[in-house]
Here is the input.
Amino acid sequence: MYEASAGLDPELVTRVWTTLQLAGIAAVAGWVADRLLGIELPVRGIPVFCGLAGLYAGSWLWSMGGWDSGPALAGQALLPALAGALVVSAVFKLVSLGASGPRW
Here is the structure.
């Protein structure tokens, strides 16, 4: 019988580490955007969703503008991720303002 390899595949470890870093970036960007805008929707996971959607929305927005991406972590630029999370959070803030009804 052949012995099983006791070591981990370096490529797999690299992919897992990159995915964890991207999840951390998304969570922090979504949390910051939620705290800045104060989304008042009683739905769990809104900051994480805003961060994940912000990764893609921010990258698209930054590439359309042709701006310098700034510092990066795990191949993902931090400033576009934060900007995208702010844009997605602003949409949810507008939804929460509309759902709360008139204020007078």
Summary: The chain has a mean pLDDT of 85. The helical segments are 10-37, 46-65, 78-100.
